[in-house]
Amino acid sequence: MKLEKAVNLPVSKFFSQLVLLNRLDKLGFDRFVFFPGMLFLTFETWWGESGMRKTAHEGLDICFFVNSRQERYRLDESVKIPVLSQGRLVHVMDDFLGQTLVVQHILEGSDKGPLLFFYAHILPDPRLHIGDVVESGKAIGTIADASKTSSQLMSHLHLSLAWEFLLPPVDTLSWEILNQVNRSIFIDPLLLLSEPHIQWEYPTDFELNSFVKCSIALNS
Q: What's the rounded Cα separation, in Å, for the pair 93 and 148?
C-alpha cells in the first residue's frame, strides 16, 4: 500500500484561496491548466525546447489558468502564495529561482509523523521566522521573478510534499539532497487539491507567451 493511501490526507482549498487572495476571480477565473511536464513524477520539461528532466518531477508546478471564456493567463511575481494547511515553518532553502519555505504539518491520527510541504521559487515574507505557525490560507510570500535569472522558465510556484521521517534532518535539507532521494518518499500534491484543473497536451503551434501575466490583465 502506498504511504499516501495509509492515512487521510488533509484536503486543502489552496486553489480557491490563491484565487481570492490575488483577485483572480476578477479575470473570470475558471481553472488551472497543467501541461504534462508540470505534473508529479513526469520526466518531460514544459519550458524551452521540451526536453527531459534528469530525474522525475518531485512535485507540481503551478503557473497557467484560463477563465470561462478560455482566455489564457499566468501567475507572475505579483502573486501571493497561501499555505495549503496550517503548520509550522521549519526550514528555508535557496533554489535557483528564489527560495523554498518548508512547512511542517502535523497529521492527526497518523503514526507516520509530520508531513513537510515545500513551497519553492518564492520570495518569503520577511516577517516570517523559523518556528512561526502559519495558518491555512495565509500568504507566506510571493512568486519569485524568474526573468532575473538565466533560466528559460517562467515565474511559477513549485509544490512538493513528503513524509518527514523518510528524509534527512529538516535543518540539513537542500535541493541538492532532495534531487537525489528516492521519488517514492514524495506525494502527489493534487491528492490534496480536489478542486477543478485540466491538463493540456502540447499543440504544435503552442506558445507559452500566449498566456498573459495576471498582474497586467488586472491592472489594464
A: 18
Phi, psi for residue 51 in degrees, rounded to 5: -90, -150
| pLDDT tens column, 88-130 | 999 999 999 999 999 999 877 677 789 999 999 999 999 999 9
Q: What is the pTM of this model?
A: 0.93
CA-only gyration radius of the chain, Å: 17
User: Distance of CA 9 to CAs 14, 72, 112, 123, Å?
Assistant: 14, 31, 12, 27
Distance between terminal CA atoms of the chain? Answer: 51
Query: Residue 67: in which H helix or E strand, if any?
Result: strand 64-67
Contact 214, 143 (CB under 8 A): no
> Grid coordinates representing 168?
534527512
What are the extents of the domains in the chain? 10-219
Cα–Cα dist 29/24, whole Å: 6
> Which three-class secondary structure string do you get for 85-106?
CCEEEEEEEECCCCEEEEEEEC
* Sequence-ordered list of residues with C-beta below 8 angstroms from that of 70, at least 6 positions apart, any chain: 30
CATH domain 10-219 topology: Glucose Permease (Domain IIA) (2.70.70)
CB-CB neighbours of 195 under 10 Å? 15
Range list of β-strands (E), 48-86: 59-62, 64-67, 72-74, 80-82
**Is 132 strand, coil or helix?**
coil
Q: Which residues, at least 6 apart from 35, have a Cβ–Cβ distance to it below 8 Å?
A: 46, 64, 199, 200, 201, 202
Which residue, 127, 55, 115, 112, is CA-closest to 84? 115
